[in-house]
Amino acid sequence: MSKDTFETLDPENWDEMRELAHRMVEDAFDYIQSCGDRPVWTPVPDEVSERLKGAAPTGPSAPAEVYEEFLANIMPYNLHTNHPRFWAWYMGSGTVMGAMADFLAAMLNPNVGGINHVAPRVEQQVISWLNEMLGFPASASGLLTSGASMANFTALTVARNANSGYDARREGVLAAPGPLTAYASTEIHSCNQKAVETLGLGSQGLRKVPVNDDYTIDLDALRAQVEADREGGMIPFCVIATAGTINTGAIDDMEAIADFCDEEGLWFHVDGAIGAVAVLADNVRPLLKGMERADSIALDLHKWMHIPFEAGCVIVRDAPTHSDSFSLVPEYLQRDVEGGGMASGKIWFSDYGLQLTRQFRALKVWMSIKEHGLDRFGRMIARNVEQAHYLGDLIKASPELELAAPIGLDIVCFRYNPGGMDPESLNALNRELLVKLQTGGIAAPSYTTLHGNYCLRAAISNHRSRYEDFDLMVEEVIRLGRQLS
Fold first, then answer.
1. CA 321, CA 167: separation in Å to the nearest integer?
2. Concatenated DSSP letters of 225-284
3. For residues 188 and 195, what is the distance between their CA atoms, to the nearest angstrom?
4. What is the DSSP letter of 75?
5. Which SS3 state, helix, strand or coil, does residue 444 take?
6. I need a surface site. Which of 65, 165, 332, 360 has the fewest CB within 10 A?
7. Cα(104)–Cα(124) distance, rounded to whole angstroms?
């Protein structure tokens, strides 16, 4: 390449790119503002799937052409989590300010692993806000993560290293005096099993304890399992309580588990991916009493606080114990706290998790909380809980519908049951009904199976949902159920 030819990745024409950027923003605002006017889900056509298998281009394209491809092949077939009738799995609905903050974070493009700049200070303030919200001491440490999967992994790593009775980080799992064992209910999210397996403890290192009729952990069974395992030479180190199970939204008895962990010398971890942020809601907060006693909490801000994906968090009560599991400072990352240069930063989040390279996800959390205030988030959460019970009342009022489980938090499991059908046929009917409901673009609940019964599952973590949206879904479920049966 000639010295006279100097290329960068900046726009060749800044004015044209600026004009295109304005168009993108306008289209994005229209997309969110009119989200309820489109189908809640549209399957990806075969021809679009084929286009998206093409080889990478070797030469450039005009930015406007690239954007036109996005409009044609990507935007219409998105997972429309912002739609007011999107209640599938468990996802937040996003916000405009959160999306704009993500754009600003990408434009600034800092690495928030450490160094002396403002982004780590923003994350530190966000962590301090969450500590206070959850009732943790100001001295507690925290880390923003991609989601609760990584937050739970981080917390369980600290729990294993801190409470296994030997130096697990430095000696490794083979040096353990016995099989290390964690405990949770059978309703625990699968990411916790993945974490235990990744930590080298095997799937048998997570004891899944039976649940009560309300899907909360059976404390008597927990106590018996821990006692039996100790007698068998195992090393219990942690109990994972769930603040909102993924199937039904059940909340384990936090106070009782905290007491048990104190008695037994076990690390008390809370998987609060769904429900931890519900401490902001007056009608949920009493159910979470005792969570503030945990040694660590994992939570998702991209669920019930609607921060755009990805935004999870782990909070650990004892900061030195947290950093001792992850801090590693080679010569090229030495800190010069007194030197005054870029390496003088005191906040290095790389000491609290696996990642050194970290995106500026704190900005969208910071700007969202600044814009709305925590009380408004609490009101949105409280309304979703009320809507869940409203939906439950609609189901109870229809002889063709039935609840499949007690309503926990904002999750409603139900099915169409006209009567007189064998279990296998009834399950098949509800599977087909759900597909028609989704492909018709009407509403998007998801599904689960409880006691062998396939059912529709509405996880109502959506700040745009109105009560009439639930009326519409129930009407359509009954209409489709009658057609199919």
1. 12
2. HHHHHHHTT-EEEEEEEEBS-TTT--B--HHHHHHHHHHHT-EEEEEETTTGGGGGSTTT
3. 12
4. G
5. strand
6. 332
7. 19
Supply 1's token pair: 């390449």
3-state helix, strand, coil in the chain (%, to 5): 45, 15, 40
Domain tally, the chain: 3
> Could you read off the pLDDT of 58-87 as tens digits, one per residue?
999 999 999 999 999 999 999 999 999 999
The phi-psi region of residue 414 (left if phi > 0; otherwise alpha if psi is between -120 and 50; otherwise beta) is beta
d(CA 301, CA 362): 11
- Report the alpha-carbon distance of residue 146 to residue 122 in Å, rounded: 17
Is position 174 within any domain?
yes
* Tens-digit pLDDT profile for residues 426-442: 999 999 999 999 999 99
Burial profile 262-293: b = 16 or more Cβ within 10 angstroms, e = fewer: eebebbbbbbbbbbbbbbbbeebeebbebbbb
Joined tokens for residue 424: 């296998």
Pair 175, 46 in one domain: no
Residue 359 tokens read as 């995106």
> Is the pTM above the cut of 0.85?
yes
What is the identity of the amino acid at 284? V
Maximum alpha-carbon separation in the chain: 82
